[in-house]
Specification:
alpha/beta; five-stranded parallel beta sheet; four-stranded antiparallel beta sheet; 205 residues; Rossmann fold; globular; binds adenosine-5'-triphosphate
């Protein structure tokens, strides 16, 4: 874990209920620039819930999330603008081509769509409607969107789902570049991810 004085993102005493059920009870975490954190634990442990809470998509029953010492609830627009959230759903528009989907993201994020396609080996699929892509290809496309968003904090829910071994290597390269540039990654996984030196938060513990 990052020493407290260097932490950019800090969660303190997070309590989250879902449909009145206590899912997270006093979760603490810290992450500095360039840092990575893997969320582990059995099905239902609350990994996705924690990612959603960090993204501001799940209300907190108690506790707080800070960015550079400021409660993110006091600056929700700034917080939303500094993070990219990849859920289980790929959030792509099925009728648009892959290139059009990425251009939509680039309109707000301003990133380089050609580089994002190349990073995940998607160049030859760019003209296809997303509905025709395989599950692993769609996952790669969704990861390309994260890259394009050009934001410091990546919140990734099982990013390797459906990826073949070559795509997993590409993901490792992209994650390393993001961290080298000072970006931060928090990801859930059941199978391990190419994130060397990542801290681990086991929600079952
Ligand atoms: N919208 C919801 N309403 C009610 N309960 C929910 C909701 N979403 C999740 N839960 C419950 O919250 C608990 C934690 O779910 P969550 O999806 O965060 O777990 P997880 O650790 O990500 O699991 P998995 O490894 O299966 O992806 C589960 O018991 C789940 O049933």
């Amino acid at each position: 874990m990052t020493p407290a004085s260097e932490a950019t993102l800090r969660a303190v005493g997070l309590v989250v209920l879902r449909s009145d059920r206590l899912v997270l009870d006093g979760v603490e975490l810290e992450l500095g620039r360039g840092g990575a954190l893997l969320l582990t634990g059995p099905n239902g442990a609350g990994k996705s819930t924690l990612l959603r809470a960090l993204a501001g998509l799940c209300p907190l029953a108690a506790g707080r999330i800070e960015w550079d010492g400021i409660d993110t609830r006091d600056a929700p627009t700034e917080h939303a603008g500094r993070l990219a959230y990849l859920g289980h759903q790929d959030a792509l528009k099925p009728g648009l081509s892959l290139r059009e989907n990425l251009h939509l993201t680039a309109r707000t994020g301003g990133g380089d769509t050609v580089a994002a396609l190349a990073a995940f080996g998607l160049e030859e699929l760019a003209a296809l409607p997303v509905r025709l892509l395989s599950a692993g290809q769609r996952r790669r496309a969704a990861l390309a969107r994260v890259l394009l968003a050009d934001v410091p904090l990546w919140l990734l829910d099982e990013p390797s789902l459906g990826l073949d071994s070559a795509a997993l290597v590409r993901l490792g390269v992209v994650l390393a570049r993001h961290r080298d540039a000072g970006g931060m990654v928090i990801a859930t996984t059941h199978v391990g991810l190419p994130l060397p030196d990542a801290a681990v938060l086991d929600l079952a513990a």
